[in-house]
């Protein structure tokens, strides 16, 4: 069956450390993978997009990797801050038409 | 910064009633979407819309749902006869391009069906 899985447990880290969030999928072949941030009661906010032929993408303190062999994406936040505390969603785009398949999200808590 | 706006922020309705959720996408965007999120669950795709037509729809988007762009600015989602299981947060989104697009989401309309 098709699945997209993110760490279901909340991730607690200390301010200044690097947060690493995982997105694994099975029986999908996405053309693109996107990461969004969602705060409680708010809409998702786009962070990064990576194509299937890209290994890594960076934007300021954010880095995403995409391994189509392992069927996994890793999302890193370096020098984390309490303001980074939120739920992070990965989303697969199979054909590039923004018909996104979202994971359940991982809640990140950054402690001072 | 341009944003997607949605109204109402919260609507409570009785089962069987019709509901219309409204969205004003970002003005130069051409592609529009509705997603929904049942409390505690994943965000799910409902429908995409371009050039006054539905481009894609999911299995959730059955005959009780419809979308419309009645004028140059609004994009609406109508649920004809609401069911208890329609209770969810409904997110409108828009993008500049259909392909490889960053989606801009609104803040959502919470629908509660009693």
Tags for this entry?
heterodimer; A: mainly beta; six-stranded mixed beta sheet; five-stranded antiparallel beta sheet; B: mainly beta; seven-stranded mixed beta sheet; four-stranded antiparallel beta sheet; 11 strands
Give the helix/strand layout:
The complex is a heterodimer of chains A (112) and B (114).
Chain A (H helix, E strand, L loop, with lengths): L2 E4 L4 E4 L4 E8 L5 E7 L6 E7 L4 E4 L2 E6 L4 E6 L8 E8 L6 E3 L3 E6 L1
Parallel strand pairs in A: 2-11
Antiparallel strand pairs in A: 1-3, 3-8, 4-5, 4-9, 6-7, 7-8, 9-10, 9-11
Chain B lengths: L4 E3 L2 E4 L5 E6 L6 E7 L5 E8 L2 E5 L7 E4 L6 E5 L8 E8 L8 E2 L3 E5 L1
Please tell me about this protein's structure.
The complex is a heterodimer of chains A (112) and B (114). With 112 residues, chain A is an all-beta fold. In chain A, 0% of the residues lie in helices and 56% in strands. Chain A contains no helices and eleven strands. Chain A has strands spanning 3-6, 11-14, 19-26, 32-38, 45-51, 56-59, 62-67, 72-77, 86-93, 100-102, 106-111. In chain A, the strands form two sheets. In chain A, strands 2, 4, 5, 9, 10 and 11 form a six-stranded mixed β-sheet that branches. The mean pLDDT of chain A is 94. With 114 residues, chain B is an all-beta fold. In chain B, strands 2, 4, 5, 6, 9, 10 and 11 form a seven-stranded mixed β-sheet that branches. Chain B has a four-stranded antiparallel β-sheet with strand order 1-3-8-7, with no helix packed on it. The mean pLDDT of chain B is 93. Chains A and B meet through strand 4, strand 5, strand 9 and strand 10 of A and strand 4, strand 5, strand 9 and strand 10 of B.
**Which sheet architecture does the biggest sheet of chain A show?**
6 strands, mixed
How confident is the prediction overall: mean pLDDT of chain A?
A: 94
Query: What is the chain-wise order of helices and strands of chain A?
Result: EEEEEEEEEEE
The pLDDT mean of chain B sits at 93
Task: Give the overall shape of chain B.
Answer: globular
Strand content of chain A: over 45%
- Give, in order, the helices and strands of chain B: EEEEEEEEEEE
**Gap between N and C termini of chain B, in Å?**
37 Å
The strand count of chain B comes to 11
Taken as a percent bin, the fraction of beta residues of chain B is over 45%
| Structural class by SSE content of chain A | mainly beta
Largest interface: A-B, 24 and 28 residues
Q: What oligomeric state best describes the polypeptide chains here?
A: heterodimer
Low-confidence stretches of chain A: none
Low-confidence stretches of chain B: none
Radius of gyration of chain B: 13 Å
From the spread of the alpha carbons, the general shape of chain A counts as globular
Q: Using DSSP, what is the number of strands of chain A? A: 11
């Amino acid at each position: 069956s098709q699945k997209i899985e993110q760490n279901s447990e909340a991730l607690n880290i200390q301010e200044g450390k690097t947060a690493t969030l995982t997105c694994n999928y099975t029986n999908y072949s996405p053309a693109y993978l996107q990461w969004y941030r969602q705060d409680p009661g708010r809409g998702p906010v786009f962070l990064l997009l990576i194509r299937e032929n890209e290994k890594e993408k960076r934007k300021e303190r954010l880095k995403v990797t995409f391994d189509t062999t392992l069927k996994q994406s890793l999302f890193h936040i370096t020098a984390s801050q309490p303001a980074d505390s939120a739920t992070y969603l990965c989303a697969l785009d199979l054909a590039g038409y923004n018909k996104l398949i979202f994971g359940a999200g991982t809640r990140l808590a950054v402690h001072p | 910064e341009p944003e997607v706006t949605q109204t109402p922020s919260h609507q409570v309705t009785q089962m069987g009633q019709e509901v219309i959720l409204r969205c004003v996408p970002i003005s130069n965007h051409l592609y529009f979407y509705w997603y929904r999120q049942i409390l505690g669950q994943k965000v799910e795709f409902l429908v995409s819309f371009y050039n006054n037509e539905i481009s894609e729809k999911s299995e959730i988007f059955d005959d009780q749902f419809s979308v419309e762009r009645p004028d140059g600015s609004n994009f609406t989602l109508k649920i004809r006869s609401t069911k208890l299981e329609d209770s969810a947060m409904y997110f409108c989104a828009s993008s500049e391009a259909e392909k490889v697009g960053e989606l801009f989401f609104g803040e959502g309309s919470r629908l509660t069906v009693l």
